[in-house]
Amino acid sequence: MRIAAFQRLALFDAVEQTAEVLARDLAWAEVQGIDLALFPECYLQGHSYNKATAKSRALSLGDIRLNALVGRFASGKTTAIIGFFERRNDALYNSALVAKAGRIVGVYAKAHPLEMGRTPGKDFPVWEEGHWRFGINICADLRYPYTSRRLARKGVGLICNPINLMLRPHKAELWHKPGISSLQICAKHTGCWVMASDVVGSNDDGWVSYGSSAIVDPNGVVVAKAKPHSEDVLVFDLPDRQPERGFAQKAGRIAT
Asked: In this protein, which residues make up the domain named CN hydrolase (predicted)?
């Protein structure tokens, strides 16, 4: 299976522009034979810790506008994972949608949101792509090992981690290397491949992201790492079939 992690400039309140970038990137991905493409946390509308801002940006899965956008940018064979602020009735979630062939096929909500006013997700769905199974943890979820172990017990071979490390400059510097380390720890603890997609750039408040996109093998070895401070795309070929290793058994041993 060919996977790709896209490191892209963060855009804010520019859904149409982001959709154009997604359409371009996913068209390229299809030409390159990418089976699964990962984009950053809250990439569609732009991240914010402010509840009112997030509420104004949030979209529901049944929103005609959202489905029209997905129909435009995810119309091909490549499966895409895209972070967005999701509205469910009166609740707000930091979520990632899974889209393919022009429609949304699933969603994961961040179990441990750091953003004020976001509701924690409780489900850990798993999807199949070819002969592989994959699941999603969003950013800070990896600080809580049970989130990735839940996926490992369900037999996933790949954990996808949309992240958004746009922080105050001193915090961005502080978290850049630990961000990569958390992927390595997750991989070694679960026996799964792990890939992360981050934003780069800055916002009007002076926050900045270095970009911590990476792909890590089950032994914790970083096999691909994005260039800091720049847009980048990481492409890696996993084996055609998910290894017949006992991911669930390994996770179970760790949990005991």
From this structure: 1-240
| Domains, the chain, with CATH or none | 2-255 (3.60.110.10)
Over range 61-84, report the average pLDDT: 97
Contacts of 24 by beta carbon, 8 Å cutoff, 6+ apart: none
Helix, strand, coil percentages (3-state) for the chain, rounded to 5, are: 30, 30, 40
The Cα 38–Cα 105 span in angstroms is 15
Q: What does 53-80 look like in DSSP terms, one character per residue?
A: HHHHH-B-TT-HHHHHHHHHHT-SSSEE
171 contacts: CB under 8 Å, gap ≥ 6: none
End-to-end CA distance of the chain: 32
pLDDT digits (tens, 9 = 90+) for 140-174: 999 999 999 999 999 999 999 999 998 888 777 77
Predicted local confidence at residue 176, as pLDDT: 67
On whether the CB atoms of residues 201 and 9 are closer than 8 A, the answer is: yes
Percent of the chain with pLDDT over 90: 82
CA distance 39 to 32: 16
Q: In whole angstroms, what is the distance from residue 105 CA to residue 121 CA?
A: 17
